[in-house]
Amino acid sequence: MKVTDPIADMLTRIRNANSAGKPEVSLPSSKVLAEVARVICEEGYIESFEIEDSKPQKTLHITLKYGEKHARVIRGIRRISKCGLRIYSSADKLPRVLGGLGTAVISTSKGMMCDRDARKLGVGGEVIAYIW
């Protein structure tokens, strides 16, 4: 099945699995999806991710993270820049998710990174998603 927006599909699969309390999510992999997963993992919202080299396409396995008594770490996840409307932000106007409690995933000229790293480097870019 061909997906029009793979990033939105990835975020929806994570959101649904998180709501259902599933330990792992599997989806078709790409370089962009692996980078988004890397940023989310570095920020501590998921336990880990790995890319399985299978045929006909690589598969991305994401292990979700839960707290004590199976409390969800990811409270919300939302796609911001869509196929029909791209949202860009300059370095000085990068968004703060929940006043800094959440994270914005930004695609910059220096690679995919969180909003805090982009502010430190002084680069702007496309706002991919919010996660809190």
From TrEMBL:
Transmembrane annotation, as ranges: none
GO biological process, one term: translation
InterPro entries named in the record: Ribosomal_uS8, Ribosomal_uS8_CS, Ribosomal_uS8_sf
Keyword RNA-binding: yes
Molecular function per GO: rRNA binding; structural constituent of ribosome
Highest taxon, organism lineage: Bacteria
GO cellular component term, pick one: cytoplasm
Alphabetic keyword roster: Ribonucleoprotein, Ribosomal protein, RNA-binding, rRNA-binding
Quaternary organization: Part of the 30S ribosomal subunit. Contacts proteins S5 and S12.
Biological function: One of the primary rRNA binding proteins, it binds directly to 16S rRNA central domain where it helps coordinate assembly of the platform of the 30S subunit.
Cross-referenced HAMAP family: Ribosomal_uS8_B
Protein family membership: Belongs to the universal ribosomal protein uS8 family.
Protein name: Small ribosomal subunit protein uS8
Organism (species): Fannyhessea vaginae DSM 15829
